[in-house]
């Protein structure tokens, strides 16, 4: 556990919290609802931060994790990433697994959002400690959003880079505008389901229960699928600034002078379920 001091909340948060839900047919295998005081201790995860500064990552004190990008007087950006200690989140043979989180994407748009890249994702557990085996270990991008666009992406990375069955470095992607209300500034539940109970096996992405992307074992081949899917993963949440994915999407791929710092990503809860 990394111990972080907690700073005063400086951005208005629409605090409408929700309990980690029960899912019919599934059992909660692991979850974190970030309940705890706004003090010097928090969480059940392992932190790997771009910085360890409290202005970048903290609990708000009302059960919400906050990750905030900051720009200093020299124009340098800092932010944070959080990872689970556990590496073993997986669907059993003939079973299903769901990984979900309730998140508010930074409430920022247009030029002010240039370079913003919040993400909720997983990596194959054997990536940690190796770092040379991507993308064969598998990466599930459950939610990615860039440049303040009212859309989220779900992506599978697998196989070899460049090219391969997942068309790296882009991966196999789908996207959707958030249902009911804009992605920015509103609570939405982002989910991936790993289904090994059907043939072919499949990955399904959804927002608030609305499915928007599916990838099957047939699409990438059995060997690639086994390497990417049929083993444990760990979970990551982060808010990056700039990078390859923002460069491929609408708007500027890197922060510009008009980019506004200090607009947070909020996480109410994260949960992993396995089928009964």
UniProtKB/TrEMBL annotation:
One of its GO terms (biological process) is carbohydrate metabolic process. Residues 15-276 form the GH16 domain. GO terms for molecular function: hydrolase activity, hydrolyzing O-glycosyl compounds. Residues 1-18 form the signal peptide. Keywords: Hydrolase, Signal. Transmembrane segments: none annotated. This is Glycoside hydrolase family 16 protein. It comes from Zopfia rhizophila CBS 207.26.
């Amino acid at each position: 556990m990394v111990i972080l001091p907690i700073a005063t909340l400086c951005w208005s948060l629409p605090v409408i919290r929700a309990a980690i839900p029960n899912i019919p047919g599934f059992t909660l295998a692991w979850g974190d609802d970030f309940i705890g005081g706004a003090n010097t201790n928090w969480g059940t995860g392992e932190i790997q931060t771009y910085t360890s500064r409290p202005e970048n990552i903290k609990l708000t004190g009302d059960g919400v994790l906050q990750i905030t990008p900051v720009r200093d007087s020299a124009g340098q950006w800092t932010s944070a990433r959080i990872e689970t200690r556990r590496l073993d989140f997986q669907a059993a043979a003939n079973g299903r697994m769901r990984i979900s989180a309730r998140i508010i994407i930074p409430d920022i748009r247009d030029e002010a959002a240039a370079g913003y890249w919040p993400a909720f994702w997983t990596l194959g557990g054997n990536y940690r400690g190796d770092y040379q085996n991507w993308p064969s270990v598998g990466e599930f991008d459950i939610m990615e959003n860039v440049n303040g666009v009212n859309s989220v992406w779900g992506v599978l990375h697998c196989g070899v880079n460049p090219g391969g069955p997942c068309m790296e470095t882009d991966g196999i992607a789908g996207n959707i505008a958030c249902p009911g209300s804009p992605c920015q500034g509103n609570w939405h539940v982002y989910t991936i389901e790993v289904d090994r109970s059907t043939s072919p096996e499949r990955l399904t992405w959804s927002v608030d229960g609305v499915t928007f992307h599916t990838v099957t074992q047939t699409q990438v081949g059995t060997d690639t699928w086994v390497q990417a899917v049929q083993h444990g993963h760990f979970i990551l949440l982060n808010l990056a600034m700039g990078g390859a994915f923002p460069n491929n999407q609408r708007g500027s791929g890197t922060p510009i002078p008009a980019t506004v710092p200090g607009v947070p990503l909020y996480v109410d809860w994260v949960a992993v379920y396995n089928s009964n």
